[in-house]
Design a protein that fits this description.
The complex is a heterodimer of chains A (453) and B (436).
Chain A: H1 6-16, E1 47-55, E2 61-70, E3 73-78, E4 88-91, E5 96-99, E6 101-106, H2 144-151, E7 154-159, E8 167-175, E9 193-197, H3 200-208, H4 216-236, H5 247-256, E10 261-266, H6 269-281, E11 286-291, H7 299-305, E12 308-311, H8 329-339, E13 343-345, H9 356-369, H10 376-379, H11 385-391, E14 408-411, E15 422-427, E16 430-434
Parallel strand pairs in A: 1-4, 1-5, 6-7, 9-10, 10-11, 11-12, 12-13
Antiparallel strand pairs in A: 1-2, 2-3, 5-14, 7-8, 8-9, 14-15, 15-16
Chain B: H1 2-21, E1 24-33, E2 40-49, E3 52-58, E4 67-70, E5 75-78, E6 80-85, H2 132-138, E7 142-147, E8 158-166, E9 180-184, H3 197-211, H4 230-239, E10 244-249, H5 252-265, E11 268-273, H6 281-286, E12 291-293, H7 312-319, E13 323-325, H8 338-347, H9 352-357, H10 361-366, E14 384-387, E15 398-403, E16 406-407, H11 413-422
Parallel strand pairs in B: 1-4, 1-5, 6-7, 9-10, 10-11, 11-12, 12-13
Antiparallel strand pairs in B: 1-2, 2-3, 5-14, 7-8, 8-9, 14-15, 15-16
Helix pairs in contact in B: 3-4
Classes of the chains: A alpha/beta (453), B alpha/beta (436).
Chain lengths: 453, 436
Amino acid sequence: MRPLDLRTTALAAALALGLGTTVDARITVLKDDPYPSTYERVAATDTLIRNATVLVGEGTRLENADVLLRDGKVARVGQGLEAPNGATVVDGTGKWITPGLIDVHSHLGVYASPGLDAHSDGNEMTDPVTSQVWAEHAVWPQDPGFGTALAGGVTSMLILPGSGNLIGGRGVVLKNVPGETYQQMKFPGAPWSLKMACGENPKRFYGGRGSAPMTRMGNVAGYRNAFIEAREYLGKLDDDEPPTQDLQLETLAAAMNGEIQVQIHCYRADEMAIMLDLAEEFDFKVAAFHHGVEAYKIADRLAEAGTCGALWADWWGFKAEAYDAVQENILIVDRANEGKGCAVVHSDSQEGIQRLNQEAGKVIGVGRRAGIEVAPEHAVRWITQNAARTLGIEEQVGTLERGKMGDVVLWNQNPFSVYAKAEKVWIDGALMFDRNDPALQPVSDFTLGQEPL
Amino acid sequence: MRALSVLAGAVALALAGLASAQSVVFIDNAKVHTAGAAGTLANGDVVITNGVISAVGAELAAPAGATRIDAKGQPLTPGLFAGLTALGLEEISAESSTVHQSLGAPTAHVHPGETRWRPEFDVLPAYNPRSQVIGVNRVEGLTFTVLAPGALEEGSFVAGQGGAVRFDGGFDALVDGSRSLFVDLSSGAVAMSGGSRAGQYMLLDQAIREAKPAPSPMMMVSPGHGLLTPAGRDAMSRYLRGGRVVFTVDRAADIRQVIALGQRYGFQPVINGGAEAWIVANELAAAKVPVLLDALVNLPGSFDQLGARLDNAAKLHAAGVTVAFSQAGDATHNARKVRQLAGVAAANGLPWEAALAGLTSAPAKVFGIDTQIGSIEVGKTADLVLWNGDPLEVTTTATQVFVGGRAVPMQSRQTLLRDRYLAPKGERSRLYPAGR
């Protein structure tokens, strides 16, 4: 069964210590996961990667350093480590090591390649509020995009419903391992995410049909009505006779109860500010604004709220709400409140997820142009530690600190280069991709045999 | 006295006129990537006279009166090709009132029997050189594009005509000799040909027959039967006399059909997209058909792209095919991303010089404007870019863009927004101009 997520565990600990006076014994909305993870790490010997430049993921960098993976976890990072008996030793001389990359915004599997009508599974646009749907129930594990993302060093990702609805449904965190079922990929213990959307998409689609929402006014009324219902539902859950399970309200109530991360597709600064007020009104936390083309305009406000900006390096102009882009968006969010901002590079693209490192590289470049130098050990946080925080999995992945999952990428050079390639990718200590060994390059069932024999 | 002063004034005016007529810029000590026969000059100098490159070499003497620019060893390249785009034709993609590159014909506006085929449609009159989308991309080192019409479902898969423009700010920016016809044979356009890939070729054949031999002015439109208007036949027939026709097409089988069509009907095909072009690389090379491709396409986005792979450009180049870069995705607003395509192609086997050529001399050659732009050679228009590093690298940015020899301001609406919000907030809103 699904282990309790970290935040619930932390809350329970706080209550046990008698610190929960203001939190009044909150109940747990989500009990067992009826679609539990069946992920099992691939058995592997211990691995010592020697003499590389290591970007630890929390902001530090070690030269000529080694990384030891033991029992699937990061055991040690440092210089001159001893290889345990039977360990595989990999020479990292001249190469760079990062934590496995994490994409907080992917539609792999729900908008799979090839882009057939039959593969259009990401937007349940039958009602503006569809919090009852789960992206995981549409993930096609044979999407060839998982394999190409792995070749780009991506080891975990959040698969989200699309942004056609005000409240689109539940997203799921996957480990990027090949499988026949999504449950084999499901990240053990990771919280789900709730996908919401501001602005043009919902109002364009529903308004175009002559139904609500037709305007941004209607958008906000739609969120509020949904959360008012969810608040009532949440309040009744510990009644002697709790209400019948309601899939739509259950997800919203869990979000309000801190069990589900809230991810909001939102471009304009003024709309993000409204959504932060909405979060106050209904007592939930916004984990991240996604796309956030205008996040730079309210970067301090985001930092104060502890909300991350999951952003692109350069995409813009396709909609009016994406008109005021600046290439330094990620940089400005990162620097907010004396460096307390939380910036994340995300993809929302089967192409971009293969090159999160290059997207971060673009930000380093425009930073330099603006007179702001960003070190690689800092920039890597945008695609590792901060991404893990956005998904609520920062205790398990996102840095190479001892005890974390052994998700590691060996790059042939500084990863923030267009010429950089992930040479080897380990997930939970097992080598899952090797650029120099075709036997360690997964080929999806769809791709197999497409080249005529 | 009076006569003299008038004379002096006239001399002064004449000298001023001469001075402006003899504007000379000397770019000193650059790593000059000529994208021409001379290759790369490690310590190169470039002289620009009246907007035209007048000398390229090592250790050139600074001409008298020249404006000297010390490149400090930075790379200098020709201005880059933005790819096939709608720069200047589109402001915000989702706002139809700002989008002008495609001719659709909603059923309500088409008289019974009237054709939706309008190859005479030409996007150039809609070009707006003042578009901020151009400004945003020019500071990134892009100095020319080929404006390409798009096919709409309500129209024909023969999308119409376009051509190359330089980002010199001028209203009449078409580069002579670059006008081209655009045909969309991608999977998305099958619906415009009665639902069959074969229908595309049937309809194309019909349109070509209507236009060739050169149509007689007496020929009448036959309602319900003819595909082309008289103007359409006229436009089409021009391309059948050796004109350039750009086909957006991915599948190897379709690329072969396009090569054969060109040979049968006497036009010069260009492949745009070409995800499976590597499969027919030898045929493309033999027919001298160039390919504009997106080097980031490695997934089967459709069943036309099952053969997509990252070394497409490398394989085509090795077979002798001319390769240039153009984006499959948001080619217009994010045109600046085109450099990443070249870098990724270089990282996947394409020689670096060929990758740079794919952004400079190759597209200039493909569109017949290589005598004017696309390389750093004497006689070429001085559209140049100085970079702070490897121009194909994602961390590199342009430090100075020259268009027609003029150092353009390295500012755009986006850099102004950046500067507004990087500055500490004062007592008043940032909407007050800086310095208040």
